[in-house]
Fold this sequence. Notes:
The protein is α/β, with parallel strands linked by helices and 741 residues long. It is built from 25 helices and 16 strands.
Amino acid sequence: MARIVAADDDDSMELNTISSVHDSTLGQLLKNVSDVRKMDIGDETPVHESLNQDYDDGYMRTVPFVLSFDNLTYNVSVRRKLEFRNLFPRGNTEDPEIAQTVMPNTKTLLNNISGESRDGEIMAVLGASGSGKSTLIDALANRIAKGSLKGTVKLNGETLQSRMLKVISAYVMQDDLLFPMLTVEETLMFAAEFRLPRSLPKSKKKLRVQALIDQLGIRNAAKTIIGDEGHRGISGGERRRVSIGIDIIHDPILLFLDEPTSGLDSTSAFMVVKVLKRIAQSGSIVIMSIHQPSHRVLSLLDRLIFLSRGHTVYSGSPASLARFFSEFGSPIPENENRTEFALDLIRELEVSAGGTRGLVEFNKKWQEMKKQNNRQPPLTPPSSPYPNLTLKEAIAASISRGKLVSGGESVANGGATATSTTTLAVPEFANPMWIEIKTLSKRSMLNSRRQPELFGIRVASVVITGFILATVFWRLDNSPKGVQERLGFFAFAMSTMFYTCADALPVFLQERYIFMRETAYNAYRRSSYVLSHAIVSIPSLIFLSLAFAATTYWAVGLGGGPMGLLFYCLIILASFWSGSSFVTFLSGVVPSVMLGYIIVVAILAYFLLFSGFFINRNRIPDYWIWFHYLSLVKYPYEAVLQNEFSDATKCFVRGVQIFDNTPLGELPEVMKLNLLGSVSKSLGVTISSTTCLTTGADILKNQGVVQLSKWNCLFVTVAFGFFFRILFYFTLLLGSKNKRR
């Protein structure tokens, strides 16, 4: 049975007696309210309705929710600093104190924190930096790994399961993580596409977005882009409200916010909290951390929890704050901001000899005294005609009223009979995978299309590189020097494909925290993001491949005819695909762009070194041969060599050309003919100035390109791209849990 707390649970006021309620089965409940939510039949009922405006027979038809948390404790291990003197053992000791210094120390971030909040209220967690505000919000939002957090978090008296919590809650991070080139309306519309179910018509989603824009008070900025350092957009306060909006688009029961007013001026902070107040009054439980609220902001808050180094030093309403500190012996002066005084006093106590121990103990006595003065037995949520609902039944009833529009469907079985039951269908994701991929791709392309300079720079780099190569290796002939120059061109060109892909590194690093925020509460699948990321990249890779091939193929004088040109384009595309996938995988591993560039450049240099151009495969030491087969440059390099030199009718060394690239190449033509005649006599073979001595097959054999055909090399290159995309998926799966340990 859920508990309920009065609006002023910290003073001696008596709780209002709960009115008697009519007995009603859940089936009758759903039947009575089925006319409120008809979105499945396409009528014009508003998607979002205030739960506090619906009455039946004199009783509020809302389904109250109470979030309670008891004895939350969270410890982390802090290892001692590595010092030079500790590197050398000083002998065994049996002193337990000395032995203890070798083990990691434990730091308590939360120590037996308890409290509760109900729908319609805002609970604010206050404290100095390092007091545990964000940690408490993370604990309530299930953002601490299972097993690390002790204590219980319950909704209406029932322990919340992780899957259920993801559906009925939202978490707003401290930073505004938004796509800069999308407008406010587009940002919220994409959030609606992710969080609201496919069964909801698009017209309903648009109505929900428009209602939310009005609720957030950002109607004048609806058509303005978010903006960033290089593009002027909306103000900081509007950005914060948009960040809140994308997380409440599905109208959650629980809303957690980590310092939503941080970095805002007083007016913007007040507007943000005013929006949160309206959200709470619509039937949500709002819990947030806040640093130092102004007097106006304080007037909007219903409950306060002050923390000091993981301990509760005050828990109650803002109205009782003055009496609490007065009885503690530190009365708040008149005309003084109550929270500022309390925070300053707590900071002074923290640096004193006794710390805040006295204030912590006084708060415990204060809480006990309140319980004794109230003299109330455990209560059920008030004003509810259905006090015996389980948590799932309460959520199902809320869904039937239009609350939690993406949380699932409440299905009544058995009609309106007394034995009717209800099942709550809570999908893990609001939409099927193909809808997620479509929406992610649309958002990514829209954001990129509004930054054409980024793609333009990439195209320019490829075209300029191709132009330089074309002019340096202009119209290569089929002489031995031409062969050597072709080898150099192919090695540089294929490695260029991979180096050009390094610009894909910042893409995910910039989106990482947006991705973590959206997937933390199952806005979409990680696999959908990986597939969308790959699909969006393909058109640009095709364009870059055609641009490079057109710039170099005819200018360099490559052979193979139309089929050779087609394969040349395909292997360039495969190289771009493989390189882009490799860099994308690294972006999921490295923490910063600078470190990522260092790693990419180093690894690609190793790939080129072991590709077979600088050192033949047969000459690579056995202990490094494995790197030769892992080299991404090896396979496209060998593929273009076979594409160029596989023509059996083409000759690359004739007669006296055998002396080219040797000291004998400087001799007069007559002497080279005489030497060629002497060689012919010695070998007993007639070798004239037109005799073909080296074909393309000989060049491939000399280069060690004999293991795979060019089509197999193409296949391996493409397969590498898929392999790294799979690895990217696992890095997202394992590295973006977004939970403390």
